[in-house]
Design a protein that fits this description.
Strand order of the largest sheet: 1-2-3-5-7-10
Shape: globular
Structural class: alpha/beta
Number of helices: 10
Distance between the termini: 34 Å
Strand content: 15-25%
Order of helices and strands: EEHEEHEEHEEHHEHEHHHH
CATH topology of the largest domain: 2-enoyl-CoA Hydratase, Chain A, domain 1
Mean pLDDT: 94
CATH superfamily of the largest domain: 2-enoyl-CoA Hydratase, Chain A, domain 1
Number of domains: 2
Radius of gyration: 19 Å
Helix content: 40-55%
Low-confidence stretches: none
Length: 255
């Protein structure tokens, strides 16, 4: 299968699995990845996800031989793409990108659509699309400008040259840089830390963060207040308060 999808307790691990092609996204991978993300979204037992790549790359983006001809055929929008976190799928559960090597083009767009990015020391990140006569088409032009200073976003988009993991860390494009052998352990530790929090609260925090980016401050504050009122009526809120008063760890159920 071009994507491995494993459920480990409350954590989903999604692995792009075309290592011979540096995990380039072909139509089959796009479809299977979409199905995995939809299942992750709908499975209430899963609270956090990790996306990574098999072999020595995260993903080098769209498969030039199979995906770009589809783009040319789809001028005018006749071909519907499967929904994904880059576009078309509203997913409020947190996702961590474990960037284990090159994240280029659509690979970087996939990582940008995640909440937290942890990179291996050998990772490189960039948008080579302009060298093919294109621009990023899975949200890259929009998300990169929200993730790094405008000048760095412009450099990545206009030159097509990738940057190193250490430089990506300098500009806040990734949260951490780890030795390759420790990458997945670091991603799991981050996921486990998230899973210790109340899952409905984490999802509301993600929704407030993501939707608030596109709202004026006053409307963002209204969204935040509305989400908090909803959380105040949950079983997990009652449990969190009791656990705090009783000086014990809360047992959250997502209710």
């Amino acid at each position: 299968m071009p994507v491995d999808y494993i459920k480990e307790d409350k954590i989903a691990v999604i692995t792009l699995n075309r290592p011979e092609a540096l995990n380039a996204v072909d139509p089959e991978m796009a479809e299977v990845l979409s199905r995995a993300l939809v299942d992750f979204m709908n499975d209430d037992s899963l609270w956090c996800g990790i996306i990574t790549g098999a072999g020595n790359a995260f993903s080098v983006g769209a498969d030039v031989a199979t995906m770009l001809p589809l783009l040319k055929q789809n001028v005018g929008g006749q071909h519907a793409e499967p929904p994904n976190i880059m576009r078309g799928l509203k997913l409020w559960k947190p996702l961590i990108a474990a960037v284990n090597g090159a994240a280029l083009g659509g690979g970087l767009e996939l990582a940008l659509a995640c909440d937290i990015r942890i990179a291996s020391e050998n990772a490189v990140l960039g948008f080579p699309e302009v060298t093919l006569g294109l621009i990023p088409g899975w949200g890259g032009t929009q998300r990169i400008s929200r993730a790094v200073p405008a000048g760095i976003a412009a450099e990545l988009l206009y030159t097509g040259r990738p940057i190193s993991a250490s430089r990506a860390l300098q500009y806040g494009l990734v949260n951490k840089v780890m030795p390759r052998a420790e990458l997945m352990q670091a991603a799991r530790m981050m996921a486990e830390s998230i899973c210790r929090a109340a899952p409905l609260a984490v999802r509301s925090a993600r929704q407030a963060l993501m939707q608030g980016l596109d709202l004026p401050l006053e409307r963002g504050l209204e969204l935040e207040r509305s989400l908090n009122y909803t959380l105040a009526a949950t079983v997990d809120f009652d449990e969190g308060c009791r656990a705090h008063l009783e000086k014990r760890k809360p047992i959250f159920k997502g209710e």
